[in-house]
Amino acid sequence: MEDGARGDDGQSLKGTDKTENFxxxxxxxxxxxxxxxxxxxxxxxxxxxxxxxxxxxxxxTGYYLAELDGVPIGGLGTVxxxxxxxxxxxxIVKPPFRGKGYGYRMWQEVMKTIGDRNLFLExxxxxxxxxxxxxxxxxxxxxxxxGVGRTDDDHAVNNAEDRVTLVSVDKVNFDDFxxxxxxxxxxxxxxxxxxxINQPGSINLVAVDSIEGIGQKREYRxxxxxxxxxxxxxxxxxxxxxxxxxxxxxxxxxxxxxxxxLVATVPPEIPFYIDVxxxxxxxxxxxxxxxxxxxxxxxxxxTKCNSVQQNMxxxxxxxxxxx
Length: 323
Ligand SMILES: CC(C)(COP(=O)(O)OP(=O)(O)OC[C@H]1O[C@@H](n2cnc3c(N)ncnc32)[C@H](O)[C@@H]1OP(=O)(O)O)[C@@H](O)C(=O)NCCC(=O)NCCS
Fold this sequence. Notes:
The protein is an alpha+beta fold. It has helices at 30-42, 51-58, 102-111, 128-133, 174-185, 190-197, 252-263, 281-290; strands at 22-26, 63-68, 71-81, 85-93, 118-123, 137-148, 165-168, 203-208, 222-231, 241-249, 271-277, 293-302, 313-315.
C-alpha cells in the first residue's frame, strides 16, 4: 500500500526520513479514518459517530497517517471541496510521540498536497500561534455548549411566534437544500450533505416559509435548516450523545425555532452539544437563555478569506472542518 500512497497531485509522501523509518502516507480505508477518530475521542473532541465515513466520501484522498517503523503514530486530515477550498482537521500525534518533531513533519508533507486552496481550521488555544506561523488568520471564537436532554419542554426558549414550518429534509428538493447550505457555508458540498443527512440516528429539519406544493411544485422557500447527529461522549459512555450541527437560519426567530425543535428530540438525560460562534450575538443569546454551559472555546482560522455567512450560523456544522 505504501508504494501507491500519493497526494492528490500524484506526489508520493513516502520516505521522509530513512534513518527513523518515519513516513507519511495516504489513508486508504474507512477503518484507517476510524483510527484517527478514536484518537480524537481520546482528546475529548466528541466527534460524530459516522463523520469519518462522511469525510471519506467527500474526499477519499484527504487523510494521512504518520507511521514510525510501520506503526501509526499520528494523523492529519484535509477535506477538500473542489479546487478552491479545503479544511484542515484532526491534527493529532499520539501522546508518547509528541514534541519530537513528527507532527510538524507530517504537517509539512501534507500541506504539499493541497495546492493553493483557501484553508480553514478550528484551532485549539495552544496551537493558534503555530497556525499563525503557517499563514492562518483568526476570525471568531467557536464556543462549545453542553446540555442534557430534558423530560419536559419547560426549558425551551420562548419564541414569540413560530414563523416557519419545519419539515423533514426528504420533503424538499435536495438541490434547493444544497443551495441554502452553500449560501451560508460558502462552499458547494452535496456529497458531504447527502452523507450527513443519511447517517443512522440523524434528524434533519428544514424550515420552509410555505408548504404549498411541497414534494410537487416546489412552491416554498427555505429559511433555514438544522440537524442532529450521534456523537461520542467518550469511551466509557454506554450511550451516544447528540451534536446539534448545524443550525443555519436566515433570522434569529428561525434559528430559535430550529434550536427548540432539535433540543426537544434529545432523549432525557442524554447529553447534547452545540457549537456557537461568538460573533453571532443572536445565537449566543439563544444558548444563554436556554442556560447551556460553555465547556470549551476554539478559534476559527483561514488562510485567504472567510466566506461563511456568520449572521446565519446558529450552530456550526462541524468543528472538524470549520463550517
Ligand atoms: C498538535 C500536535 C499534532 C503537534 O505534534 P507534535 O509532534 O507534538 O509537534 P512537533 O514536535 O512536531 O512540533 C515541533 C515544532 O513545530 C511547531 N509546530 C507544530 N505544528 C506546527 C504547525 N502546524 N505550524 C507551525 N509550527 C508547528 C511546534 O510548536 C514546535 O515548535 P518548537 O520547536 O518551537 O517548540 C500534537 O501536539 C497533538 O497531537 N496535540 C493534541 C491534539 C491537538 O491539540 N491538535 C491540534 C488541534 S487544533
